[in-house]
Design goal:
The chain has 431 residues and is α+β, with helices and mostly antiparallel strands. The strands form three sheets. A five-stranded antiparallel β-sheet has the order 2-1-5-4-3, sandwiched between helices. Strands 7-6-10-9-8 form a five-stranded antiparallel β-sheet, sandwiched between helices. The N and C termini lie far apart (113 Å). The model has no long low-confidence stretch (mean pLDDT 90).
Amino acid sequence: MDNELIKSAFDVILENSTDLVFVKDINLVYQTASMPFIKMTGKSSLSEIVGHTDLEIFEDESLAKRYIADDHKLLSIDRDLTDYVEPITDDNGNARYGSTSKFILRNDAGKAIGILGITKDITHEYIARKRYQQEFNYLFELPKDTYAVCYIDIDSWRIISQRRQKISSCTLQECNTIEEMCDYAISSIIDQKCKAAEFYNHFTAENLHDIYSSGRRTLTFKYERKLSDTSTRWIRNEVNFLTDVDTGHLCVVLSAKDINEIKLEQLKLAEAAKLDSMTMLLNHETSMEYIKSILTNENDRQHALFMLDIDNFKSLNDTLGHQAGDKFLIEFAKELKNHFRESDIVGRIGGDEFFALMRNVTELDQIKRKAEDILEIIQETAAEFPQVKLGGSIGISLYPKDGTQLDELYAKSDSALYTAKRNGKNAFVFI
């Protein structure tokens, strides 16, 4: 056998190989290696490898010890190790995964004289398979907060597998086809303008491929949905794209999680943030936002903005204390709210100042009667505190007659309010 020819052929293989190839002697000292292997170690030339051990080459001592342990195992069992996954690094030291085979090199007498190692970088395949397995574990071991999971092959356009379970005695309907699943989802979504409805309305292989091609691998939607018992609950859909490691098909895993209690608590907190904590009327900021929206969207109608405060309220606090003042404000706010329609906006500016927007009013007498009602409410609430003479002053501006912007109406109502105070209080004034 021509050993020089074999060595020459091996050198050519090493020079052109894209795999991580190395040869160690029986003492685990490197004798040669391919350029990809040299770069993987962070070195630049073969001379930095030859004559050295793993502990001398690799900065990561734990990694070096792992490689050495594998070599000792190979030699102790006296049997080649093939296609096992181990951690490697790229040229920049970033963690990757390799499929490694190590072979015992023997002399003519059959005695072990070294090790040949060949490692293929399988990071992409390894991560894809690991994720694929995680998704399937998720599919067949439903978390307790998950109604259902559906695994769909996009390229063959069929449901591969699905599972569901009951939460609070209800779940999602089982469907046999993708079209049936989409129709059911769309009909069950409460807000047909939400992102989830848009997603299911455009659930096609082409659109799913477009999403995947854009670089997105995960989508989430939160929405309210009717369930099997016709109750409505908040759901979070998770959409995870992955590639089937066996067929290479693009697939998607849809899961529906129950977030009803969390969402209701969030909505409760969000609503609470819009309210004045004492009177439970809308706070100043929220009232302004709602009124601006009404003036924008209902600009073909007449609206009346009331600004009011309680006359002599400071005397109530000074005479009977702030607890009595708070009690008055709470009771008055409740009655004030009850005397306006649900569609009207009633809020507290701060202290003893309030304002309200009366929507879609057609007659001036209707506004006057409302102002008189407010003054009467103040008197009725004040009757519980006879030690102090309380009253109310109200300023009123009209949209669009007195202005088309809220800031303008607000200023004019405020000006009319102080005119009422100057004219003797306990009265209402139009600007």
